[in-house]
Amino acid sequence: MSDRGGSGDFLAGFFFGAFVGAAVALLFAPERGQEVREQIKEKGIELQHLAQDIKSDPARFAEDVTSKGRAVLEEQRERFQQAVDEGRRAAARKKDELLTHLGSGEHEETIDLGEIDA
After folding, report:
1. CB of 24 closer than 8 Å to CB of 49
2. Measured distance CA(81)–CA(59) in Å, rounded
3. What b/e string do you get for 88-118 counting C-beta neighbours within 10 Å, with b at 16 or more?
4. What is the pLDDT of residue 107?
5. How far apart are CA 62 and CA 66, in angstroms?
6. CA gap 109, 99 in Å, rounded
7. CA 76 to CA 78: how far, in whole Å?
8. Contact (Cβ atoms closer than 8 angstroms) between residue 108 and residue 86
9. What angle do CA 45, 47, 6 make, to 5 degrees?
């Protein structure tokens, strides 16, 4: 494999995939043929403009993509942490409930473990 076109090959593949994906999505959309052809034409023009922008300043494009990727990653990291924290709170509530039940001496009664809040 040659390294001469590494980022260029990636960008070409990226745009080809974007174009094919857009075309397939439009073809399966519930619209009339003429409207679909017009949308494909418009998306093709948009992709040409995007390709020209990237070609004129690939470093800026890479920086923008990296920045957006980091922002999405941070957002997902925060959401995951919130889910973990909520899981810990739910487990602590259920633990307290079980300990209270056991400490009360009412061992005849059953506890439904399926009531854990998600």
Report:
1. no
2. 33
3. eeeeeeeeeeeeeeeeeeeeeeeeeeeeeee
4. 56
5. 6
6. 14
7. 5
8. no
9. 145
- Confirm if 109 and 98 have CB atoms less than 8 A apart: no
d(C-alpha 38, C-alpha 102), whole Å = 70
Strands (E), 13-112: none
28 backbone dihedrals φ, ψ, rounded to 5°: -90, 0
Q: Output the six-digit token pair for 30.
A: 């519930």
pLDDT at position 75, please?
94
CA distance 80 to 68: 18
Block mean pLDDT (10 aa), the chain, length 118: 58 79 74 76 86 84 87 94 95 91 67 60
Structure tokens at 73: 């990653």
pLDDT of residue 113: 65
Q: Which pLDDT belongs to residue 36?
A: 74
Residue position matching structure tokens 């922008």: 53
End-to-end, the C-alpha distance of the chain in Å comes to 49
